[in-house]
Write a structure and sequence with these properties.
The chain is of the alpha+beta class. 41% of the residues lie in helices and 17% in strands. The chain contains 8 helices and 8 strands. A 6-stranded antiparallel beta sheet has the order 3-8-4-5-6-7. A two-stranded antiparallel ribbon has the order 1-2. Pfam families: Fe_dep_repr_C, Fe_dep_repress, FeoA. Keywords: Activator, Cytoplasm, DNA-binding, Manganese, Repressor, Transcription, Transcription regulation. This is Manganese transport regulator.
């Protein structure tokens, strides 16, 4: 089945379940899906019942939501669309990384599988999008980023390289850009300030150390600076 045959709502739900499970090991619940999509929990519960009947999700009442193998395949196709579109917008049309999420959200429902394939070829078959997120291959394979951890969990005086940046808050992406922080940036952490809940980091190529609060450190996913690049 092609993801193009699904309604925009079904596409959104399947992608939301997959993306939510990508960022955390916590169970994906209807309330979390509702918050992400912007609808009520009761609406999510009704829709999940329909998706379960179609064989796309597994969902017990009041329990966690998981994708069936077919649902996961379709979700990965939507994630692939979204991240290829984001990459195209940045690399070919001059968008900045804080502008592309909402634009790709609108476009991903209108494009065909053929157009995505042509964009993928034109871009040279990228395996990461502008935020460092892995782009699924046509068959659903992903670059392995299992070693990446939140900067918030990194001990002081550690040299790391940024692999992924959570794109949920455009204003934070703009602030990262202003401070010289991006995918591939190498930085060294200092001792935290327990009163201010900030950590000073030194960024390679940037003269002045930068103070990062807890939310910013949770948005940055890093690996050891000398780890092989994926």
């Amino acid at each position: 089945m092609s993801v193009s045959t699904l309604s925009a709502s079904t596409q959104d739900y399947l992608k939301a379940v997959w993306v939510l499970s990508e960022w955390t090991e916590k169970p994906v619940t209807p309330s979390i899906i509702a918050e992400r999509i912007g609808v009520t929990t009761s609406t999510v519960s009704i829709t999940l019942g329909k998706l379960a009947k179609q064989g796309f999700v597994n969902h017990e009442r009041y329990g966690a939501v998981t994708l069936t193998p077919e649902g996961e395949q379709l979700a990965l196709a939507m994630v692939r669309r979204h991240r290829i579109l984001e990459t195209f917008l940045v690399e070919m049309l001059g968008y900045t990384w804080d502008e592309v999420h909402d634009e790709a959200e609108r476009l991903e429902h209108a494009v065909s599988d053929l157009l995505i394939s042509r964009l993928d070829t034109h871009l040279g078959h990228p395996n990461r999008d502008p935020h460092g997120d892995p782009i699924p291959s046509p068959t659903g394979e992903l670059v392995n980023l299992d070693e990446a951890v939140m900067l918030a969990d990194v001990p002081a005086n550690t040299r790391v390289r940024i692999e992924r940046v959570n794109d949920a808050q455009p204003e934070m992406l703009r602030e990262f850009s202003r401070r010289g922080i991006g995918v591939g940036s190498v930085l060294t952490t200092a001792d935290p300030d327990p009163l201010a809940d900030t950590v000073s980091v030194t960024i390679s190529g940037v003269k002045t150390p930068v103070l990062l609060g807890a939310a910013a450190r949770r948005a940055l996913w890093v690996v050891a600076a000398d780890s092989p690049k994926q």
